[in-house]
Write a structure and sequence with these properties.
This is MARVEL domain-containing protein. By secondary structure, the chain is mainly α. Helix content is 63%, strand content 0%. The longest helix is centred in the C-terminal third of the chain and has 33 residues. The two termini are 14 Å apart.
Amino acid sequence: MANISGFRTALYFLLSLFSIVVLGLSATRLHYTLHVPLGDPVNGGEDFYDRIVVELLVASILTMLWSWFVMWIIRKRKETAFVSTFRGGFIGLAILWLMWLIGVIVVTHMWGDLRWCQIYKPCRILTALVAFVWIGWITMTVIFIVEIIFVSQNGGSRVALHGRWDPRVSTATSNRPNYGFSW
C-alpha cells in the first residue's frame, strides 16, 4: 500500500490556508457592505450584504475545520466514530466541494471582470476573493483526484482515512483479499 500521507497532509494544509484567506476576504466584504460609508455610491449608500459572501464565509469555516480534522487523523492515525474511512472522508469532502463550486460559479459570474474599478479597495478585495475561491476549489479537486487514485489502488473506500491500514490495530475494514496471510 502506497504511503502518501505527507502529500495529502500538505494538500490539506494548503487548503486550510486558502480557506483562512477566503474567510478574511469574506469577512472584510461583509463588514464593508454592512457598514457602507457615508457618501459611498455603492447601493445608494444603503447597507446590504451579498448572500454568496455569507455562503463563502460558512464554506471557508467548515473547510478549515475539516482540513484540520483530516490532518489530525492522518498525523495521529486516528479512527474516530465520526469519520474513519475514505468513504466518510469522500462524503465530507464532496459536501464542501459542492459548496465551493457554487461559490466559484456565482462569484465568477458576479465579479469575474472588475478591471474597470481596480482603483477602489472594495473592487480589489472582490478580485482577490474570486481568485482565492478558485484556488481553494482547485485544491479541493486535486485532493479528490489524489484520494480517488489512492483508494482505487489500495483496497477500496473502506480503508482507514489516515491511509495507513494495519489490520492489527485498525477498526476500519478493508476490501483487500487476505490470500491466507495473517499479519
